[in-house]
Structure formats: structure tokens, C-alpha cells
Amino acid sequence: MKICCILIFSTPLFAVNSHLTDTLYGTRKLGVILEVIKANYRDINFVYDPEKFRDVTVTGFRFEKDLNVRQNLDNLEEVAPVSYLIEGSTIALRRIHTVSEDFQQGLIKGKVLDENDVPVFGASVFIPGTDKGSVTDIDGNYELHTDVFPVEIQVSYLGYKIQKIRVSEDRENMVIRLEPAFESLNEVVVTGQGADVRKKRLSTRVTTINAEELEKIPSQRIDQQLSAKLPNAQINLTGGQAGATSIIRARGVNSAFVNSTPIIYLDGVRLDNLNTRSALGGSSQGSSMSALADIPMDNIEKIEYINGGAATTLYGSDAANGVIQIFTKKGGRPGTNLTLQAESGFETPTTDFLYFNRTKDLLFRTGAYQKYRLNVNGESESGFGYNFSGSFLNSSGVQIHDQNENQKADFSTGFRARLADNIDYESSFIYVYNRYKRNRNGNQGGYTGLWFAEDGASSITGPGFNNRLDELSGEEFAAIREFVDNAEKLQDNHIVVNRFTTSQIFKYRPVDNLLLKFTGGIDFRMQDQNTVQTNAYLSATRGQEITDQGSIQNVQRNYLGVTLELTAQHTYEIGDFSLISTVGGQFFRTRDRQILYSGSNIRDGAQTISDAAIKDSDEYLNEVLNYGVYLQENIGYADKLFLDLGIRGDRNPAFGDNIGTQFYPKAGLSYMISSEPWFKPGVLNSLRFRTSYGIAGNLPPAYANEKTISFDGFKGAQAAFFGQPGNDNLKPEKTTTIEAGIDIGFWNNRINVSAGYYRALTRDALFYVPPAPSGGYRVSQLYNIGEIENYGLEISTVIVPVQTQDITLSINASLNTLHNEVVDAGGAPAFNINGFSSRTLQTVVQEGYPVGFIRGNYGVFDDNGVLEQTTPQSYLGSTIPEVFGNLGLNFSYKNLSLFSNASYQTGAYAANWDAQFRYYYGASEQFVPEGEIEVNGRRNWLNITNRFVEKTDFLKIRTIGMSYYLTPREKAFYKSLTFGITALNPLNFASSTFDPEATISGAAQGQGGASTGGISYATYSAPRQFLASVKINF
Amino acid sequence: MRKKSIYLVFIIICAFSCVENPNVTEDVYLENPHSVSSWVVGLKRQLAVTTNTVNVNVAITSDNYFNNYSQYSKVFDIPQIDYFDVDVNSLQADVQALREMAVYGLDKVITADASATAEDEAFMHFCLGYANILGGELFTGLPEANLGKMLTSGEILTLAVGNLDAAISLETDPKNIQVYHLLKARAYRSLGDVTHAVREAEISLSDPSLLYQIEFDGQNGVRNEMQNAVFDALPNRLAPLPRLDFLDPKYYAVGPPTTDQKPVALAKAEEAYLILAEAYLSEQNTGKAREVLQKLLILVGERPVVRVDDSGETRNGGNRTDYPLTAVPVRFDSTGPFREGLILDRQAGNIAVHTVSGTSVTLSDIAHAGGVDELLYQVYLLRQEIFIGEGRRLTDLGIKYPVSQTEQDNNPNVPDAYIIAQLPAFIPGNGGMDNFSTEPDGSIAIETDMNRIIVQNKTASEVVPFF
């Protein structure tokens, strides 16, 4: 019922359908007329140089609403010196010169191409300070006349960097290649706004990454691809196994109960980001799995990313960690375009961090990688756009017996159509198949590859081996190798994901300044996890014959998310003021159903549980429903000062009985100082200040408020016992962010600097308070009792030190500082979010410390290196870095480009639990004084955890690549060819002896729980890949 | 057309806009009939869960077993008992969960369900009483209720007696009544009340082979953890003190362990004889003590013994690799005589498994035991052997767990005095209770005979309550 009210609220907007009369302009400036035409066709991108039309006056033009844009422009052509070209939704206008140009001497002709050698339609090519200029035609052609050489010509196109080129003689075929602008404040964004808004109107940053940038980095999954691309966010791949989770965090860790992964939208539809826990069957071995690993990647037009804070307020109750929105392609250039791409190469294990040299020989090998992709797109004259992509990827992985194999297939279609003059329709359908193997990892007891080899556990596994691998004789090593080979060969565990996502968008423009947008869609993700443990495997790894303990465990997780959103955006201009009002309602419902079915005492060879002597099953169901209404007003003054105000109200059945609607307000200011008339561009050519305040939240899980009774079977009867204590006052935790920043462009935007400071305070932070044992409950209950603070600087820059006709060099870098602290724990006892027992090693939430700091025993040694005393539960370091950022470099020479990017962090620590076990099992003496071993042996191994905590500073080069574009000089069967060579994860520099990123992301509260990593424990590093690709555009 | 579209959107949204909790809330549970029967089964399940936590941790903390693997507590063997230890928290939580469940059953479930019977109520009082016995025997003190005031172990044991009286008054099954009397005897013994202990033990012996066992359900995730630790899991996790080798495993499975989970005794007639013998010895009455011990040995001899293939046992947990695997002699401390037959060669054929009680003590040992102390030594050896794997040894050693850190952090009523474990001064540290050495000929010498230590310290407040 409540949701109905919300929608009724927005219905009057349908009724506002004022009648527009045709307008006859007597004598008006051409520029003014063009503004009127623009305002009436807002979905059309008009490209022209206003300077060219400034001096033109037009008489006798009548704008007629009933005519389409083409007819109105035809009428304009008759009375004004203007011509136009239409391509898709872009119209390029140019001035026709009426004077004869025959006497002009110089001629400059050529093409403007984008970074993929695709002709650019509608780019302005002109000679600054003169009226000489041209707009490129559909094939990117331009032609300029000049009466003097040398001359500097300037080329501009929205979303691309302005290029200035000095020409000293006639040119018949001068090719100008545009480079995408790092960030254009005129760019239109959607995320966080409900509808289209230009970036400069926003008081917060929106990072946009376009398809070309994404395509440069071949990768298997979206988080890997983005890992060095978001200047103010950190993406750490916490495990090298296919499908392993990553830790994504931007403005620190604002929650101690849910992980910092942003929510993800695809064309306005919420995707499963696996923030619901895996309730059954564990988390697929020690390493959790990620729903990010199967987000479709082949049909992306652009990605928008907003950090948490004021930017995400309109996403309401679960957007405190930021929002990633993916937009898929729904059209292409006119006609039909075909692209074929093949990518192939090899993968090598990242062995940099292995302790024993011979671990590599035991567990790893070099693998093969291949990927094929087909894309067909196009657009008809009537504006119907389509895009189809299909791709197949096969990675054999770097572990022996294909234990890290991954196969992935994507199929996607996107359509865009104009149903009527004022109704547009966009649609996308995406299917992803992802299959990967998962051998045992972490320490699951018994044999586990890395734990066996690297942690010294080989001495207690199977028949027991000498665990100092590098000291073994050839014969001894052959024996251990045979054991490992057999143990790996006999494992057969895999995960299969089938995912279907669709988005349907209708845009309806009842009057010319009102846009209604309806978005509806679903994300359905089915994940099957299959673990087969044969008697042969058990016998081989346990050193004795086992005949009746073979088992198969299947866990299926079905996720269905439904998103419905209705937005109305109204634009209005009065005098110097422009107002964009947005009102909308969003509804989402997710259903997570998990089913476990297992069989034990099953004969080897059986693939289903139907042959098992004992069969068992279980089920878990979680449904979330959230509905909210938002209202936003963006007020602009003279295109330089913008005030952004908004509020969202949310309701959710998971909130406690005493909690009603939750409100999330925001306010912000953006001031384009460089748009002031008194601002004289010089070295400094663009300057903006921005500041904002906003609240976003994190939802508690469904039903977490209710007091429940749990049941299980016991000896054939129904057993009831305490479930969850319940909390009638449960509500979302809310993060209030205050931020301020400055965006500066120097030297014709060749140096862009963006700097900001934020402070985010999470109030009513949700803590899983460990229950007092006297209460009889074993389940921790969520209470809104904490307060977590994050603050820091966010600085990013793009510098283009070299830019000539043939050579361009650009460098981008970002630096983010971060301070995180639990300022108030509400009197709750400290609790762990990761790790083991409170007596050994944990990452902990405790007042006065950063979230997830390492807590363990601190041992003090005497002069002889013998342990003197140990202090339990000591602070051993923060797992959250103080500084992190990304670096990137792009260099191009004519058709050749080189690129590289990297990520770094400093100021964080992690515990080397591998080394601690290695010490315990006698495989190493690393980190421990000799005196201690002589006197006490290894029995104090748990009392000296501080010795095993290491700093995790790193610089990781994520990508080094090279590409070469080739366009045929004459007509050929293809339009362009692109060759590429890329190395992924080629170089790692780290202060720790273990991989500072591979620090188990699993959380104590299970999948989706808060995690900061921080413990190195039998986890694989991401492998290296060396790939070559060829792409043909037809 | 436009209106129709709007209505259509409404209908779609309304159809999606309800979620119901798929789980059972407290209100729904209590409002529906026959809640008591499921709560009684829930209590039986909790008895099994609590027994698992107590059994494994007591085995490791005491001299009975050494944790030879990386799972379970790595410090209780030392013994190192910290109030922040997760296993201390689990022990308190599982003991108090049984109490809270029993209280909830009596206060809420029984009152809400018209079908509740006197037996149901008696069972809940019994569970409450047993929870209080565990609390009184294993902890220095515990809160009386959720976040309640602290009670000393003596106060908790006194509560247990009252709970058991309530159970007896409601119970109709005579067998169960004997069990409750035996548990009362146990509580009185721990309180040092000889008169009442003797009286209750004698009443319970009206069923001379009394046996009340806790059952497990491997298919529903409540397996017998002690069985897993000593038999099912590979490698075997717990290794017995070599002189107790012949009593290991007490629990075993034939075929998949999931469907073969052996029960654990909660109360058995042997205990009544042992209480009586100890009581008579406290009165210097060695004759009557000998008499009941002889009856006890006859009962033990009547308990079932099965032959089991335990050739998979290789004591290969990994922390200690010198556990004897062949039949070698063992002595109980560095000066005692070597004894044969206590350490088994499990590769030489099936071994005898004492599923209820077994002992190395013979009628002759009883007959030849001299004064009070020698008989008292036999009583404590018998207690150790007969109760092995039943979570009883720690009380005989005088060790008590502290209240957990999580309790103290949540509960302002917990003074610091309760967060320190009770470890009598005579308990050797550094693994001294589990340590042994191997002679060149393979024979084994245990470092410390804890039963000897107990008798030597019989007047200490922590042990031998009748003295």
C-alpha cells in the first residue's frame, strides 16, 4: 500500500502537458534560434561552434512544433547561412560562407579519427581567431582554407581533448586523431542523479570510463579491469583462483557489518553483488566467490562510478559504499558494423611470494588463454540502433590438473528505438555462462595444496614428509611430488554460474521540458557449486584405505533481483537560472534462495547424489524489499554556479518495528570560477570549486530485526531452539559525508588536477554484538550502536607533457589518504570480522582502533632472544592502508600506442599466518630469534604473533600493453585492424614476503560480511598473463 | 492508454511488494499448538551439543587426552585457560544455553501449550538441574540468568538440587527418577555433603545397572564430537595418555559415521558406587568401601564390550609423533612398576572397546590396597577410567573454567575474581599432565600420575570434596 502512495505522488507529472504554440521569430540572432531548437530536441546532440553564428541575424524563421527536427532545419537553411548533417542522434551544424573563397591560397584537408580510427562526425576544425572553420562530415572529412602559413588549427569534439596543430604547408590528407578527455565537465552522467545531468552541475565527482579504455585491458572480470582505473577507489584481488572475491573500498571502511563493495547497476537495474551470505555449504572452499566475476563485460559503452557520500544519497539505504553503473551499447554507427577479435596467450603462476622454490614445481604450471569475440552493431536512419556481442573465453589456469580452469561465454543484445516522436525505448538482454574449477584452498583440514606445501603441513599429511621442500633430495622430492600430483588429480570441485540480466527503459517526453523515464529489469543468477570427494582422494591423502566415505555436495544459489524505477525530470530556464527538478520512486526486491543437497557413502565415479547411501538436503531463503522516493533540485545560475539539493525516503520490512521511513538528504554547491566573465584563461584555464553534504546508508539484512526460533531434525523429530535474539529498533546505519574539492585545468587542460577532502561519519553503525553466553543465544545480533569515522584527501591528476601531431604522452596519477577509526563501540565487546579465535589471531572491531585491525599475542624477547613475556589481544597493526592510489601512462606515436597502469598502497599491515604455521611445523625459522628456538622449541608459536606481522606496502604494475592500429590506405574489405600485446600483473614490488593483496577476504559473518583482509593464509596470487590480440573492424 | 500503463505498473509493483519472513518468529512459534514437544526435542539436542563441548574440552584440559592436531584448543593441554579464549566462551555458552532453554521452556513454552504434560515439565527441570551441575562443577561461578548476578559454584549446585527435586516430584517413569537421584548425589558430592550424597546414591542404586545416555544425530549435524576426535576423523585428533590407551576409542562407527553415532553416558550406576566408596573412605570405613568397589567391578564387568577394527589409528595427528603404536609396557610415573596390557597393538587384530565402562583395576587391586589413601587412589583411577570420554575428569583434578570475556564485556555484574581459572597449585604446567617418555626398549613412562597427586592433596579445597 505504501508503495502505491509513493507512485501516486509522482502521477501528477503525467498530467502536466502544457500546449506549446509554434513560435515565429521576427528578426533574431541565429544563436538564439539554435538554442530554441536545441531546447525542443533535448535528446539530440547538436554540434556547432557558437562563435561562427554569433554575427548572423535571421529574419522570417518560424519554429514549428509539429515538424520534426529535419524539417525545421530545412526551413532554417532557407533563411540562414547554415547547413546541417545528421548522424544518429547527433546533428552537426556549420556556417555556409557566402563570399567566394577562390582567391584563398592554402588548403588543409584530411580526416578526424577517434582513438580507434573510427571517423569522427561533427568535430570542429578551425583556425582560432578567424572565421575559418569546418565541421567534419560523416566520414570524418574536413577541409580548411587559409591564406597564410604557418597556421595553427584547433580541433575540438565533445568528450575529447582539444588538439592544436601547427601546419606550415598545404596538406591533402592530414589525419587528426582525437584522444578522449580524461574528464570533461560537460559530459552527461546519470548515476546518482535519476536522469541526465552534466558533470559541472554536480558537487560531487563522477568517474566515467568509456569502452575504449576498458577494451585496452583484457581481463576476465570487471573488478580486475577496473582495478587501476578508478582514481579514488582501491580494488584488491584477494585471491588468484578464478571467481575469487575482491576487496573494493573507496572512502575507507564505513561499516563493520557489511563489506565495502559498491552496489552495482547495469542500465539502471541492480545486480547481484553477492552481498547476501552463503548460508549453506560454506563459501566454496576457503576462498569466497564473487558475483562480480560473472558480470557481462563485452558490450559495455561506459561505466560510471561514484564514491559513497552525497553522490549516492539518491540510492538510499544501501549506497554508502558507492555505486558502479554499467551502461551497455545499444547502437553503433550508421549501417552495419562487424568486429571480430581474437585474443590468445599464456599464463604463468605468480611465484614471487612463494616461500619454497619448489612449491612452484609441486603445484603450478604454465597455462593457455584464449578469447574470441564477435560484435555486430549499427543504426538505421530512423534511429533504430542495435548491438549484438558474443564472446567465449577459455583459460586453462596455472595450477596442475586444470584446477584453476575457467570458461566463460557472454551473449548480449542491446536495442534502441524511437517508438513515437516523444517516446524512446531502450532494451538490453545479457546472458553469461561462467564455469570454473576450485581446488581446495585455505586450510580445510586434511590435504590442501598451498597449506601442504607452503605451511609445512606436509609433515602431518598423508604418510608425512620432510616439510623443508628446498632441502629434499631428488628422490624425496619425487615422492612428495607424486603425492601432490595424485591429490590434485583426484579433486573434482567446480562452480557453474548461469546469469541472465535484462533492462527495459522507456523515455517519454509529454512536453518538451519534461522527461519521464521508466526503468524495469531483472537480474537472475544461478550458481551451482559442486564438491566431489571420492574414496580414492581420501585414501590417497589420508594415508589409509577408505571405502565408505565418498561424498558429493551440491549447493545451488538462485538470486532474482527485480528493479523498477520511475523518474521524472523537468528542466526550466528563467533568466540566468536553470532548474533541473527530478522526482522518482525506486523499488527493488531481491530473492536469494539457496539449496544444499548432498550424498555420502557414494561410490567413486558417481556424479550425482542419486547413487548415495545417505542423502541430505537443506534450504535457505532470503527476500529483501526496499522502496524509496527521491526528490532533487539542481539550480544553475549563469552556467557557473550550481546548487544541488536532494532527499530520499526509504522503507524496508527489515527495519525494526519501531523504525519508520528513513530519510537521506543531500546538498551541494558547484562553482565554475572559470565561467566568470572576469576570469581570463591563461596558464590556468579551468577552475571549479565544489562542496557537498550527504547521507547514505547500509541496510541491515532481511529479517534481522525479528526474534526467531530455529528448528532442526533430531533423532527423527522436530527440535526447536533459540534462533536470533531480535532487535525492534534495528535500522540502517547512516554515513554522513562532508566533502570539498577543487578541479583545476592548466595549460589548455594538459594538466588537470582534482583535489578534495572528505570526512565520513557512520552513525548508528551496525555491530554484530557477540551475545553474552548467559543469554543462551549463539547468534550475534545486529545493534545500531557504533560510530565509525573515515576521512582523507583524494587527489588525482592527468598530465599531458607531450602533445604533437604524431606523439602524445599522458600520465595519470592519484593519491588518497585514509584515516579510519571506530570512535564509539556503544559499550559492546570487541568482535572479530575475520581470523581465528580470540586467543590466536583475528581482525577485530574495537573502540579507538581502525576497523579490522590485527589483534594477537605480542611477545617480548630478552637479550638472548628468548621469549620473556607475552601480552594477549594486542594491537598488531591496521589492515587498512594510510595511502593508496593508481598510476597510469599512455604514449602514442602515430598509430602505435603503449600503455601501462599500476596500483599502490602504503601504511597497512597483515599477518603472515603461513609463516607462523611454517615455524610451528618446523619448516622454517624465519622471523623467530635463534635463542627462543634453542630454549623453548616451537611451543610458543602462538605467543609471538607480532613477529609474523608485516607491512604490506606495494606497487603492482597491473598492465603493460602495446597496440597498433592499421587503416587501409585504399578501399579494402576491412575498415581497421588493431594488433595488441598485453602483459597482465607483470611486476610486483612489495614490502611483505607474502602477496599483500592475497590476504583472505573471507569474513567471520560469511560472504558479504565486513572484511579488510589482513591475514596471509594459503591463498593463491593472481597469475600473470601475456596475451596477443587482433581486432578487425569490417 | 496512459492510465492503463500506470495501473499496470501499480499492479506489478504491488504484486512484488510483500515479503514474509520464511523463518519462524517467537510469536508464531508460541501461538501454534504443540510447541512443547519440539522444545523437549530441542532440549535433547542441546544436551548433545553441550555434551560435545564439555567432553572434548575437558578431555584436552585434563590428563586424559592430548590434542595432537591443529583443530580444537591448542592451549588447554598446557593447561592455559584464558577468559578470552573462544573455547572458554563456547563452554560457558553451551552450558548456559541448556539452562536458558530449560528456563524458557518452563516459563514460556509450557504456559503457552495446553498439550504440555508433567513429564515434559519434569524433563525441563532435569535439564535445568543438569545445566546447573555442569555450571557448578566446571566453572568458578556463573551468572544466575541472562546478564544476571554471579553465583558461586556452590550456589549453583544448590540450585541444581532444587531443580532435580522438582523433576522428581513431577516424573512418573521410575528409571528417570533414579537418574535424577543419582544426579542429586553428584551435586551433593561436589558440595561435600556426605550424608545427602550417600542417601541419594543409595536410592539411585535401586536400579543397579542404571544407565542414562545422551544421543546424537550425525545426519542433522549433531554428531558425537568425542567419537569424531578419537575415531572418525583422520588423522585422529586426540591421543589418550598412554596408560589409558586400552580405553580408546570409547566411541566408534562401523560404516559411515553419519549414521552411526554412539551415545554418551550422562548418568550410570557406577558413579553411585564410586560416591559411596569415597564417602566410606572419608569416614575411614575401608571395609564398606572395598565392598562397594567390588560390586562396582562386577557391574563394570557386565557392561558391554565389542571387538572393533581400529587399525586406522596411527596417532598421526602431527604434534607428537612418539605415541606408542605397539603393545609396550607403561608405568604411571617415573618410579612405578611397568604394567602390560594397557597399550594395545591395533594392527594385531580387533581390539576390545568398552562402550559404557572399562577399567584396568581388578578385584585383586582392591583387595590388596592398604589404607584409605591406597583405596582412595583406586577410586580416582576407577573414576578416571570409567568416566573417560564423558567430560568428568576436570572436576576430579580441581580445575575450573573462568567466566568468559564476552560475558564480562556484556554483563556489568561480573567482578574480575571470576575471570581467572581455578588451577590448583599441584597441577603441573607445560603439558606435564600429558607428558611421557619412551625408554630405549619402547616402554613408556608417564611423567606424572595425577591420581597419586590428587590423593596427596586430598585435603586441598579444590579436590576430593569429602576430605
UniProtKB/TrEMBL annotation, chain A:
SUPFAM superfamilies: Carboxypeptidase regulatory domain-like (SSF49464), Porins (SSF56935). Keywords: Cell outer membrane, Membrane, Receptor, Signal, TonB box, Transmembrane, Transmembrane beta strand, Transport. It comes from the Bacteria. It holds the Pfam family TonB_dep_Rec_b-barrel. This is Outer membrane receptor proteins, mostly Fe transport. Residues 486-916 form the TonB-dependent receptor-like beta-barrel domain. It is a multi-pass membrane protein. One of its GO terms (biological process) is siderophore transmembrane transport. One of its GO terms (cellular component) is cell outer membrane. Residues 199-323 form the TonB-dependent receptor plug domain. GO terms for molecular function: siderophore uptake transmembrane transporter activity. Belongs to the TonB-dependent receptor family. Residues 1-15 form the signal peptide. It is found in: Cell outer membrane. The keyword Transmembrane applies. InterPro entries: Beta-barrel_TonB, Beta-barrel_TonB_sf, CarboxyPept-like_regulatory, Plug_dom, Plug_dom_sf, TonB-dep_rcpt-like, TonB_rcpt_CS.
From TrEMBL, chain B:
Keywords: Signal. Residues 1-20 form the signal peptide. The keyword Signal applies. The keyword Signal applies. This is Tetratricopeptide repeat-containing protein. It comes from Sinomicrobium oceani.
